[in-house]
Amino acid sequence: MFKIGEFSKISNTTVRTLRHYEKLGLILPTTIDPQSGYRFYEANQISTINKIRMLQQVGLSLETIKEILEKQQADVLNYYYEIKEKELEKEMEEINKKKEMIRQLQNQLKEGNNMEKYNVVLKTIPARNVISVRKVIPTFQDEGELWDLLQQEMKKGSVKIAPGSLGISLYHDKEYRETNVEVEVQLEVIGEYENGETATFFEAPEYSIASVTFSGSFDQMPQVSQALATWIETNHYQVSGPMINISHVSPAHDPNPRNWVTEASFVVSLNGKK
Asked: Which residues form a coiled coil (predicted)?
């Protein structure tokens, strides 16, 4: 057996840590001298120390490690490993997002504040008959669910899509929201139909829009919005309706973000008139 100081050296663990482990019930001295209070450990306890250290390195708490050591069951260990693996995957996603943000900032610094690459045009979306699904969804990333509902309603009613019809998304909130966002998706249709469980049919009004068409991922939206805002302000227009996105090549058409083509726009007017 080894005194606590000796065991500390052999196991590469400080005396303070050994006392902390003892307090938590993680690893206990095999013997405590009743007269001197000296604590003694055995060589086979080094494997427990090594296991604790390894589990700490993967990010498990001492409380969790204690449960694993007490139960000594593979399914318990696997359970915590799976939880930790998911946590690490989420952390990696966040790290990758931050790396992408850094890359974008670097590109912006190289390009300066040049918005010329985003050509803003004033155009009209004509009045048209549409199928529409409009709901409050948890986040913008859930918009695909609305398109799924729209497709389901189209199949039920044998709805005919107008030639060249593009998917249009309208964002109706009066201010920016990150959650519980009100989004509407539309497609132009031919003919008249009865409203479905989740979809409605109506004549959408004509819109005058300030529009930018860009290629690539939606990570460019801050720069696109800046270009639109600059144009609206410079040309003495004002925002008088929802933001509208028109998908020319969407994630549904091509999973590769490099190939996406999106038209981002705001409904605008002079003197508050559409």
From this structure: 81-115
Which residue in this structure is represented by tokens 């589990």? 55
Quick one: 167 and 243 in the same domain?
A: yes
CA distance 45 to 27: 8
How many Å apart are CA 55 and CA 183, to the nearest integer? 45
The owner of tokens 């989740």 is 198
**What does the chain come to in residues?**
274
Helix runs in 127-256, H state only: 143-157, 221-234
Tell the residue number behind the tokens 């227009």, with chain if given.
237
Q: Which residues contact 242 (CB under 8 A, 6 or more apart)?
A: 170, 171, 172, 184, 266, 267
Could you list the residue range(s) of the whole structural domain that residue 165 is in? 121-270
> Smallest Cα–Cα separation from 135: which of 193, 180, 94, 97?
180
Chain centre to alpha carbon of residue 185: 21
Token readout for 256 is: 């590769």
CA distance 240 to 144: 26
Q: What is the CATH number of the domain that holds 58?
A: 1.10.1660.10
Predicted model pTM: 0.61
Chunked into runs of 10 residues, the chain (274 residues) has average pLDDT values of 92 94 93 92 93 88 88 76 84 85 71 71 95 96 94 92 93 93 97 93 96 90 90 94 94 88 94 54
Structure-block tokens of residue 129: 């008959």
Same domain, 126 and 243: yes
Q: How far apart are the first and last CA of the chain?
A: 88
DSSP result, 93-105: HHHHHHHHHHHHH
